[in-house]
């Protein structure tokens, strides 16, 4: 049952990609997950574990092969426009429109959500200030460093003020200070504005700092879900990294507990 | 600026697409230079090649009039047939029936027919008519016919009493028209390539730049996204059409300047023959617009399949250039409609065939409403089919892969 508090729910979610006529790749294998409103949920896993595929299914870019996925109470295969109006996405390898300025990138993206230009200008002012790019807002992005572009992308994902924010490796390529700014911003979004954030990352310290709960994906299967501290306790591990490596490599978690 | 009745999200997308292209100076420069170049080249072609041709051509002549002026005109043609005056070699007398047979078989180059009432009409009404049939696919034939036209008028009209000789031209190759065909080919060539950089950037380029994924999750249907990009593409290529008109006017001006030192008869002849009639400019632009639409349709399909912008542009150029070159050469030699069977079907299936047929018919003023409508309908239908295929490809999951 989906309640108002549960904003994301999947039931037996499976996604299989056909590679040629004979080969199949199971990207998601019967994933069951529930994420509550205001939660910061971390998805971790090795490359190819299915993190990006899960996000893409939840935002309607991919259609599930089997199972169901609900976002904000709506089936992703039926009410995707409703969902898209309320969710933001920062893709893993997100690009940016180089020939637009930082501000134009934000305004344009917000415009595609039908947000009035006046509101967008105010939001852009605030977000560019927060990510430290206010003084460069009228520069074309083509001259920006990779980290600066990533900051613009984070701001762009936030300009629509989404109820749910999907961030695929948001702090990748950002310098330490920039990553700190982004993390603080995400914390604020979650605690003050009750926005739900689903993020994927390879930085387990980031997970521990930001995430209320974490899900570990391995070869398309969700092999563990819980609060970082709970997982450490459950698997009697010294830290989340031990939990992760023990589960993913199949060698078992240090301390001897079985998943 | 907001466009009433158009979804605000679509407007944002169109604005952004256009803004990006306007910041790409080379792309804009290409839109301006290409159409200008085609008509500049046409002017150069006429100036340096056609107008200066000195090669003679076989001319058939039929004199049915046994009156004073028919005989005089014939004698003057015989006396002046050689180079450099009329470029006739040989001048062959034939009957009207023989001439008509050669027209049917498309074997003649130039046939001059002085009808039997030529003198009588001139004496009674000061106005008479000579008929010239010419294979306009043949540059020498056209040059010779042009000289004959002016020469005949100079013979008849030199009398103090004002007389008027009409020279009616007919062509055995209506799908080509000397004086315009090169520009048509070049306009087609540049037009089919014009949308490629934008379309490649807008579809394959978005994927390559990793901006497509974020775009596809906005609350807009993919059809709307595709439609907005197409509208932006059409708006941008209108720059191209505008500069085509500028190119034509510049070309016309160059012809006027070129003949400024000639006698008035020659001036009128060359201006009438080589300049593009102002009334046909909108039709040329309309045809070019259809070509651009076809090119956009094909480009969208290629761009949705290509993995990156470079691949898209390369494949696009290849797919566009090969048939356009083939059709251009066929158009140049006046043989577009001479093939039957599968080859004829393939030729007619290529949309640019219809563009060349349309433009030739308009410029030569030989088109019929039905023929022109078929050409237009085919190009529009072709575009719709390809845009629909493009839309299907754009809907695929693999578009983000």
Regarding quaternary structure, what we see is heterodimer
Outline of chain B: elongated
Name of the CATH class of the domain at 1-86 and 163-176 and 196-252 in chain A? Alpha Beta
Provide the helix percentage of chain A: 25-40%
The share of residues in extended strands of chain A comes to 25-35%
Taking the sheet with the most strands of chain A, its summary is: 6 strands, mixed
Low-pLDDT stretches of chain B: none
- Residue-averaged pLDDT of chain A: 88
Helix and strand element order of chain A: EEEHEEHEHHHEHEHEEHH
Task: List the SSEs and their pairings.
The complex is a heterodimer of chains A (259) and B (401).
Chain A: E1 6-19, E2 23-36, E3 40-44, H1 51-58, E4 66-71, E5 74-75, H2 80-84, E6 87-90, H3 102-111, H4 117-130, H5 146-158, E7 164-168, H6 176-193, E8 196-200, H7 204-210, E9 213-218, E10 221-226, H8 228-234, H9 240-249
Parallel strand pairs in A: 3-8, 3-9, 6-7, 7-8
Antiparallel strand pairs in A: 1-2, 1-4, 4-5, 9-10
Chain B: H1 8-22, H2 25-50, E1 57-63, H3 68-79, E2 88-93, H4 96-105, E3 110-114, H5 118-125, E4 127-134, H6 139-156, E5 164-171, H7 181-193, H8 196-202, H9 204-208, H10 212-216, H11 222-258, H12 264-274, H13 281-305, H14 309-332, H15 341-349, H16 351-363, H17 369-395
Parallel strand pairs in B: 1-2, 1-3, 4-5
Antiparallel strand pairs in B: 3-4
Helix pairs in contact in B: 1-11, 2-7, 2-11, 3-6, 6-12, 7-13, 7-14, 7-16, 8-13, 8-14, 11-13, 13-14, 13-16, 13-17, 14-16, 16-17
Quick tags:
heterodimer; A: 259 residues; alpha/beta; Rossmann fold; 6-stranded mixed sheet; 4-stranded antiparallel sheet; B: 401 residues; abc type-2 transporter like fold; 17 helices; 5 strands; 66% helix
What features would you describe in this structure?
The complex is a heterodimer of chains A (259) and B (401). Chain A has helices spanning 51-58, 80-84, 102-111, 117-130, 146-158, 176-193, 204-210, 228-234, 240-249, and strands at residues 6-19, 23-36, 40-44, 66-71, 74-75, 87-90, 164-168, 196-200, 213-218, 221-226. Chain A has a domain at 1-86 and 163-176 and 196-252: Rossmann fold, CATH 3.40.50.300. Chain A contains 9 helices and 10 strands. In chain A, the strands form 2 sheets. Chain A has a 6-stranded mixed sheet, with helices on both faces. In chain A, strands 2-1-4-5 form a 4-stranded antiparallel sheet. Chain B has 401 residues and is α/β, with parallel strands linked by helices. Chain B has 2 domains: 8-49 and 178-400, no CATH class; 53-171, abc type-2 transporter like fold (3-Layer(aba) Sandwich). Helices cover 66% and strands 8% of the residues of chain B. Chain B starts with 7 loop residues before the first helix and ends in a 6-residue tail after the last helix. The interface between A and B is medium-sized, with 30 and 24 residues.
């Amino acid at each position: 049952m989906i309640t108002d508090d549960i904003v994301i729910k999947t039931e037996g979610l499976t996604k299989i990609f056909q590679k040629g006529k004979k080969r199949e790749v199971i990207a998601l294998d019967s994933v069951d997950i529930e994420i509550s409103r205001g939660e910061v949920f971390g998805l971790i896993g090795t490359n190819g574990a299915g993190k990006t595929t899960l996000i893409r299914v939840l935002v309607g870019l991919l259609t599930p092969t089997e199972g169901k996925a609900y976002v904000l109470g709506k089936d992703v295969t039926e009410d995707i426009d409703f969902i898209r109006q309320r969710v933001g996405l920062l893709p893993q390898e997100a690009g940016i429109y180089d020939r637009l300025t930082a501000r134009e990138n934000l305004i344009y993206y917000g415009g595609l959500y039908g947000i009035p230009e006046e509101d967008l200008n105010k939001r852009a002012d605030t977000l560019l200030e927060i990510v430290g790019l206010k003084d460069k807002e009228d520069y074309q992005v083509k001259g920006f460093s990779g980290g600066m572009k990533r900051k613009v992308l984070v701001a762009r994902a936030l300009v629509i003020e989404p109820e749910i924010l999907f961030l695929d490796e948001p702090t990748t390529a950002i310098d330490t200070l920039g990553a700190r700014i982004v993390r603080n911003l995400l914390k604020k979004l979650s605690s003050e504005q009750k926005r739900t954030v689903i993020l994927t990352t390879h930085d387990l310290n980031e997970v521990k700092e930001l995430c209320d709960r974490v899900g570990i994906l391995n070869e398309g299967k969700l092999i563990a879900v819980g609060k970082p501290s709970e997982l450490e306790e459950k698997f009697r591990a010294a830290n989340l990294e031990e939990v992760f490596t023990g589960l993913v490599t199949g060698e078992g978690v240090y301390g001897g507990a079985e998943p | 600026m907001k466009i009433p009745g158009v979804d605000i999200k679509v407007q944002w997308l169109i604005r952004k697409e256009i803004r990006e292209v306007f910041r790409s100076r080379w792309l804009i420069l290409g839109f301006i230079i290409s159409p200008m170049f085609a008509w500049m080249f046409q002017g150069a072609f006429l100036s340096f090649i056609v107008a200066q041709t000195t090669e003679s051509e076989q001319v058939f002549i039929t004199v049915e009039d046994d009156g004073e002026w028919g005989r005089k005109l014939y004698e003057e043609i015989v006396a002046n047939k050689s180079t450099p005056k009329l470029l006739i070699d040989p001048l062959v007398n034939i009957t009207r029936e023989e001439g008509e047979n050669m027209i049917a078989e498309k074997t003649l180059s130039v046939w001059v027919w002085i009808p039997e009432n030529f003198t009588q009409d001139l004496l009674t009404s000061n106005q008479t008519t000579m008929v010239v049939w010419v294979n306009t696919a043949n540059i020498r034939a056209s040059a010779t016919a042009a000289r004959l036209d002016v020469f005949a008028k100079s013979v008849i009209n030199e009398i103090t009493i004002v007389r008027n000789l009409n020279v009616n031209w007919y062509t055995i190759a209506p799908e080509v028209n000397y004086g315009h065909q090169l520009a048509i080919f070049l306009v087609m060539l540049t037009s089919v390539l014009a949308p490629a950089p934008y379309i490649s950037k807008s579809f394959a380029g978005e994927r390559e730049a990793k901006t497509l994924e974020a775009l596809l999750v906005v609350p807009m249907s993919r059809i709307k996204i595709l439609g907005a990009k197409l509208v932006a593409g059409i708006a941008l290529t209108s720059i191209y059409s505008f500069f085509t008109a500028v190119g034509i006017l510049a070309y016309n001006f160059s012809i006027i300047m070129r003949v400024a030192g000639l006698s008035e008869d020659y001036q009128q002849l060359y201006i009438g023959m080589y300049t593009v009639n102002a009334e046909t400019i909108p039709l040329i632009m309309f045809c070019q617009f259809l070509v651009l639409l076809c090119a956009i349709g094909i480009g969208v399909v290629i761009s949705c399949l290509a993995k990156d912008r470079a691949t898209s542009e390369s494949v696009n150029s290849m797919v566009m250039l090969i048939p356009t070159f083939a059709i251009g050469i066929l158009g140049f030699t006046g043989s577009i409609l001479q093939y039957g069977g599968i080859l004829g079907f393939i030729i007619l299936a290529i949309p640019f065939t219809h563009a060349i047929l349309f433009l030739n018919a308009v410029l030569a003023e030989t088109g019929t409403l039905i023929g022109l409508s078929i050409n237009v309908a085919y190009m529009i239908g072709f575009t719709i089919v390809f845009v629909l295929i493009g839309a299907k490809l754009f809907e695929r999951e693999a578009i983000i892969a």
